[in-house]
TrEMBL record:
<dbReference type="InterPro" id="IPR000182">
    <property type="entry name" value="GNAT_dom"/>
</dbReference>
<dbReference type="Pfam" id="PF13302">
    <property type="entry name" value="Acetyltransf_3"/>
</dbReference>
<dbReference type="InterPro" id="IPR016181">
    <property type="entry name" value="Acyl_CoA_acyltransferase"/>
</dbReference>
<feature type="domain" description="N-acetyltransferase">
    <location>
        <begin position="9"/>
        <end position="176"/>
    </location>
</feature>
<protein>
    <submittedName>
        <fullName>GNAT family N-acetyltransferase</fullName>
        <ecNumber>2.3.-.-</ecNumber>
    </submittedName>
</protein>
<dbReference type="GO" id="GO:0016746">
    <property type="term" value="F:acyltransferase activity"/>
</dbReference>
<keyword id="KW-0808">Transferase</keyword>
<keyword id="KW-0012">Acyltransferase</keyword>
Amino acid sequence: MLNLKGKQVYLRALEPTDLDFLYQLENDTAIWEISGTLKPYSKKVLQLYLENAHRDIYEVKQLRLCICNSDDVCIGLIDLFDFDPKHGRAGMGIVISNPSDRNKGVGAEAIELLCNYAFTTLNLHQLYANILEDNEPSIHLFEKMGFEKVGTKKEWIRTSAGFKNEIMFQKIKTNES
């Protein structure tokens, strides 16, 4: 795999030892709205997921990686989903678990590392991200990383407060990517 190490973080494959982190993150109701989660996950289900996490992106159409800091602590997850090699595209999502780790450049570095991997190793033509219109930190992050707003899906996500619009961002590979 291409070098997935930056100055502050590195990306690595999921390991069986990530079960507790995954359990805590996937069951954090504060992020269910952005992740589309509707119910809690059991450790058993997540363990089965980890046992199959080694499967190839061409087979499962998804790649989920841990974002680790210089102390080798997993602080978040970043993934490619809806991988479409024929059309050269994939969706991208990121979550930094602890709010105290946010706004320090680790998300930007993780996105840069995964974009480089996607454009170089996977030879993708474009990446996209779907972000709720009121998630200003994520909008700022993806715009900072060169993603452009290409459209709005009106009343796309149902929440306890009603429907919310979702904004689609896109980054197309350039000679610099």
